[in-house]
Amino acid sequence: MKYLGYIILLLIILTGCAGEDDAGKDTTPPIQPVLIPHLGDPGDSPIYINGALTEITDENNGIDTVPEGQMIRIAWEPLVDTDLSHMKIYRFSDIDIEPVEVDEIQANRNSYLDQGPLVERVWYSYYVELFDASGNSAVSDTVSYAILAKPYLVGPDNGTTQNIANLEFQWNRADDSSGFYRILVWNENRKLIWHTDFNLANEIDPLTLPFPIISSEDEEDRIHPGDVLRWRIDYFDWDVQHQMYMGSESVERVFIVQ
User: Fold this and answer.
1) How many Cβ atoms from other residues are within 10 Å of residue 248's Cβ?
2) What's the CA gap between 145 and 244, in Å, rounded?
3) Residue after which a domain boundary falls, among 123, 146, 169
4) Which helix or strand (DSSP H or E) is residue 24 part of?
5) pLDDT beyond 60 at 10
6) Which H/E stretch holds residue 19?
7) Beta strands of the chain (E only): which ranges?
8) Does 29 sit behind a cis peptide bond, omega within 30 degrees of 0 on the bond before it?
9) Residue 113 to residues 91, 102, 224, 239: CA-CA distances in angstroms?
10) Angle 134-135-137 (CA atoms, 0-180°, nearest 5)?
11) Has residue 26 been placed in a domain?
């Protein structure tokens, strides 16, 4: 009986300690992560971001496609908590409506690239679940986007020297739908110095558009011999059901100004 009393006393002590540990455990979930919807595309008019009028770039426009392949990138606002562990990425679509976990990443990231495989003209939706070091979690809102076929660049060839007075951009259409194309040119500092939209009007491949002579009072926008310029073709098509544009971005090429 003496030993039985010791055992009962030990169990009481251990149970009391466990209760104290549970009472001191962090049970507060992280602040909910905020995914960034598609805010627009390079070449669109500036928009207000965090209260400041801001030019739209590939880095700040939220969920979008990328030039490197048939992929979609999602991005979120800076995370607030300091004791974060990891996050799980979830995806569903108009075809597969049940969310599935596509990846688990460390919580020190501010974006994620979904490498698919993804189907063109299918709307994909994403949300993330953020975990802290104690295992608490919070689920984000949901953002959506649809990818299109990419335009195929024909000319000028990558890395060639070009007389811009005679330069023509050439590309093959992305598909047979009635979308529009946007030609974009950046300087070496990744500043957008020229863009224009191109609407189809029964043209045949390759589609062709001359590069204009650009004159600017802003020295940063001026073009000089030896400058390395980067260009690509974006493709957009309006989705009536979702009341949004779908999009794609071609591979990027560079040329050297003669």
Assistant:
1) 24
2) 9
3) 146
4) helix 2-24
5) no
6) helix 2-24
7) 47-49, 52-54, 64-66, 69-75, 84-93, 100-106, 111-114, 123-132, 137-139, 143-146, 152-155, 160-162, 168-172, 180-186, 192-199, 207-210, 228-239, 244-249, 253-257
8) no
9) 12, 11, 36, 23
10) 120
11) no
Cα gap 181→110, rounded to integer Å = 29
Span between the terminal Cα atoms of the chain, in Å: 100
d(C-alpha 58, C-alpha 66), whole Å: 8
* Single-letter amino acid, residue 188: E
What pTM does this model have? 0.85
Return the structure tokens found at 1: 């009986």
Q: Where is the domain boundary, 146, 173, 191?
A: 146
50 torsion bin: left (phi>0), alpha (psi -120 to 50), beta (else): left
In order, the DSSP letters of 153-200 are EEESPTTEEE-GGG-EEEEE-S-SSS-EEEEEEE-TT--EEEEEEEE-
Q: Looking at the 3D structure of the chain, how many domains does it have?
A: 2
Say which residue the tokens 């108009």 belong to: 94
The encoded tokens of residue 189 equal 């500092």
> Which residues span the domain enclosing 234?
152-257
Residue 96 sits in a domain whose CATH number is 2.60.40.10
Predicted local confidence at residue 25, as pLDDT: 83
Residue 1 lies in a domain: no
- Strand, coil or helix: what is 9? helix
Query: Which pLDDT tens digit goes with each residue over 124-159?
Result: 999 999 999 999 999 999 999 999 999 999 999 999
Instruction: Compute the C-alpha angle 38/40/41, nearest 5°.
Output: 120
